[in-house]
Amino acid sequence: MREPRPAEEWHDVDADLFEKTIRTRGRPAVLRGLVRSWPATQAGSESPLSLSAYLKSFYTGHPAPLFEGPASIGGRFFYNDTLDGFNFESKRASLGEVLDRLCHDVGIESSPARYAGSVSLPIYFPGFSKTNNAARLITDPGATTLFTAHFRPEVDILNQATISGQLGTDASISGTWKLVITDFKNDGGASARQSFGHAR
Q1: Within a 13 Å sphere around the CA of 181, how many CA atoms are in the beta-carbon half?
Q2: Is residue 89 part of a domain?
Q3: Buried b (16+ CB within 10 A) or exposed e, 129-149
Q4: pTM score, whole prediction
Q5: What is the pLDDT of residue 186?
Q6: Number of domains in the chain
Q7: Which domain holds residue 88?
Q8: Res 142: pLDDT
Q9: 76 domain residue, yes or no
Q10: What is the Cβ-side half-sphere exposure of residue 29, based on CA atoms within 13 angstroms?
Q11: Alpha carbons 44 and 161: distance in angstroms, whole number
């Protein structure tokens, strides 16, 4: 089986370069440093505690879905060994408390695996996207990709960023935990509009 080609990497991407060169190729691209100027990236570069405090400044307090399992599952939330249940507990929890636990458990290999999914920024962290977004680069949603969602209606993906607990200056992934923030807009549609493959 042929190995997939690695995605081409780009640095210092502006709207002109993206529109005229990267987007026209229609291939996955890694945009290095794209979110370097985000306040969330700056906070994450300082420490997990700084990032947690920044996120909590937007938090509405609404409980969110949370999966929690033992460290032994290695972050893989799946069925249990006998296939009659799951290897994690599903509940609702305060994201503020989840962030506190993540910060406390940084570097502790025996800490539980935690996953908070379907966390909509407008609902849980309103205001975050105003200063942490790729609007300066993406002026049009781009091509449409159809997909089938599970556990929730189809959503329109506006932008997404991956922020780790110990970010480097180029916002690449590092450290022992990561927080994935995705901005969702429920519009009843069945498409995900994406303009680039992977932004870090």
Answers
A1: 25
A2: yes
A3: beebbbeebbeeeeeeeeeee
A4: 0.66
A5: 39
A6: 1
A7: 11-199
A8: 52
A9: yes
A10: 20
A11: 13
